[in-house]
Amino acid sequence: MCGITGFVSPTYQLSDLKNMTTAIKHRGPDAEGFFWDEQKQIGLGHRRLSIIDLSVSANQPFYAQDGRYAMVFNGEVYNFQEIKKDLQREKNIEFKTNGDTEAIIEAFAHWGLEAVHRFNGMFAIALWDREQNELFLIRDRIGIKPLYYYFDGTHFAFASELKALLTLPFKASINMEALKDYLFLEYVPAPNSIIKGIKKLEKGHYLKFDQSTLKVETKTYYNLVDQLNQTNTGGNTEEVHAQELKSKLEESLKRRSISDVPIGAFLSGGTDSSLISSTFQKLFDQPINTFTIGFEVPDFDESEYAKQVSDHIGSTHYFSRIKDSDSISMAEHIVEYYDEPFAAPSTLPSLMVCKRAKDYVTVALGGDGGDEIFMGYGHYNWMNRIQKIRKYGGGSLQKVTGFILSNGNNWHKRAARIFDYNDPESMWLHIWSQEQYMFSEKEIGQLFDTTYKHQTLLPSWSKINEMSISSEEKVSLFDLNHYLPDNLLYKMDIASMASALEVRVPLLDHELIESAINMPMEMKINEGQQKYLMKKILAKDLPEALVYRKKWGFPAPVGNWLKSELSFLIEKYLASTVLKKQNLFNHNIIQKLITDFKSGLQFHYKRVWALIVFQMWYEKYMDNDLCK
Questions:
Q1: What pLDDT was estimated at residue 170?
Q2: pLDDT value for 393
Q3: CA nearest neighbour of 77 among 155, 129, 141, 17
Q4: Rounded to the nearest 5°, which phi and psi values hold at 455?
Q5: Which domains, and CATH codes, for the chain?
Q6: Is the entire prediction scored with pTM above 0.90?
Q7: Which of the pair, 320 or 363, is modelled with greater confidence?
Q8: In 3D, which of 38, 44, 46, 45 has the Cα closest to residue 11?
Q9: Helices marked H in 369-509 — which ranges?
């Protein structure tokens, strides 16, 4: 696990490369390395977090034995030992290191870009072809590892984090469409970033930059939608599917247990982390390390469940009670880590649990993916609810339902927002936005005194929506393609690397996902029970009371804090004087939002928080004098 940077530019210098790499030194505290060809004006930078083969000989940049390629990469290719055996058999290569880096570059040297189809892992790779003067960027199938790139027609640059690109000598300006998308979704969806000219390489893609023609070409090498068999009619028993899932998970965990440094697992007490921890513990004779944090606010603390799971599986459990004061003090500094506006309140506990885990291990297993694959979110039910209302009562019943709810209590008022839409084509995008407590398209239009209709993800959703599968399966594919890589995985990458901790995600082994998405619907939602098959497997190891309980998320009580200890952030960043000086938003709309929130409409907290996060980001990266 590392951080990578680089560029091909007629004017950028080695000093620029070093500045970029220093900006992400937190990702790799163990070593720093550079490849610099002054004649061709190509540079690659690397910060290393040593995980496998801790020797100096495994440092990067790394060079192919034939001398053609130079490479830096971030992540892990777990099946590198199998790849080495294939290369030894086909090419008789004598490897000089014991890790995956050498296997990756020699695989490219032997098989070319087709080598990527052999990799099982998480990775962002930069490969310079010294013969053809071409730079290749490659991102893993699922989008676990991030990769940004900048191109202005002359200068091409890339980095693991946006902040590294912002050290380069160009004038950054806001991508206004990305800002509106952020307020709609709580994150900036790929391929855009918040900065004009900087994009995200999408998951399952590679990019080629040709130095001679100055052309950028991107191409898909893997699409999860293509792995779905729409004509699958099932046929196997529940036991067969359960055994298949168990086998895939065990295989994934065995691959992800390879490490030359201490390893552990996050354990919240929920289905995903409990299944991973219990299965992982069975692979070892000694107790594994598990990690949990808890909050002082009881409604946000499920640490007791994690302790009970740990007691049952026999792990060595580390628990930390996070004081409100610790989280609150971190809240104003969140943009030092997250260099794009990102409104998920779970950033705070994610940073905290990674920080605690790093005190004991350098690798941790995370539970991301279970809700998306096995349909664990509440919003999987909303699609069918509204479709039924429209089917039996049309738009009129939809409006009447929304009106009735809008005159109810706080919960009803929030639910009423889901019914407030007019375009059936983008119905799901609206539902998703409102399930996240974010601004509606109409409200964003009011914020900017213009018309806003979300476009970035609409083509992808329209394609999925045309498929001959259930509504729940459509939403699952949408979440796997967008919410997972651009939100959850981005969140955990930044949180973990801020503490130089590698987080591996066993449920996101692409072979496991391909198997699971082709299982019948009743293996995912069965008689209202979500994540059905996962829980059936888990119930064989844990008491049913721990398995079949109310779902918890992993948020922080930001709404409570904004009315108490964090109220100063509203006054500091959303004051009319600040908003008028900035001249981005309609300040009257924001002041009304704040008034409604303070008067008791608690569900507005997320919209207030999203605006504060953007303002904090803006002050740090765009205008240091914003609040002066």
A1: 93
A2: 60
A3: 141
A4: -120, -25
A5: 2-222 (3.60.20.10), 226-375+489-547 (3.40.50.620), 379-474 (no CATH), 558-621 (no CATH)
A6: yes
A7: 363
A8: 38
A9: 370-373, 379-406, 410-418, 427-435, 441-448, 458-465, 471-478, 489-497
